[in-house]
Amino acid sequence: MKRHLLLFIYSFTILILYITLIRAQWVQTTRLDTGTSFVTTFVTVDSTIFAGTQTSGVLRSANDGATWTPVNSGLPNVYTFYIYSLAAFNGSILIGTN
């Protein structure tokens, strides 16, 4: 009896995960125009998305990616910095560069 219950729970969990994955879809809202730069990392803070790029510094979107604004204050020369990682901590964005 215990084995049948575990099998049922396992099967039900797999079914729920499968349905969730089928419904999850990426939808392109706009093209992120960074010239020849590639987006290397993302982080979100509340409903704001931050994108780290290869040569364009950090970009911010407050409208689900419809528009992007550079937010590079504190970086001496964004064109020489490859943004490897972004992290959110206590309301600040931490940037890992080269």
Please count the beta strands (DSSP E, at least 2 residues each): 6
Mean pLDDT: 80
Write down the secondary-structure element order.
HEEEEEE
Distance between the termini: 58 Å
The quaternary organization reads as single chain
Discrete helix count: 1
Radius of gyration from the alpha-carbon trace, in angstroms: 20 Å
In short:
With 98 residues, the protein is α+β, with helices and mostly antiparallel strands.
Walkthrough of the structure:
It is a single chain. 22% of the residues lie in helices and 33% in strands. The chain is an alpha+beta fold and 98 residues long. It has a domain at 39-97. The chain has a four-stranded antiparallel sheet with strand order 1-2-3-4, with no helix packed on it. It has a two-stranded antiparallel sheet with strand order 5-6. The chain is elongated, with a radius of gyration of 20 Å. It starts with a helix and ends with a strand. The model has no long low-confidence stretch (mean pLDDT 80).
Layout of helices and strands:
Blueprint lengths: L1 H22 L15 E7 L2 E6 L4 E4 L7 E2 L12 E7 L2 E6 L1
Antiparallel strand pairs: 1-2, 2-3, 3-4, 5-6
Characteristics:
4-stranded antiparallel sheet; 98 residues; single chain; alpha+beta; 6 strands; 1 helix
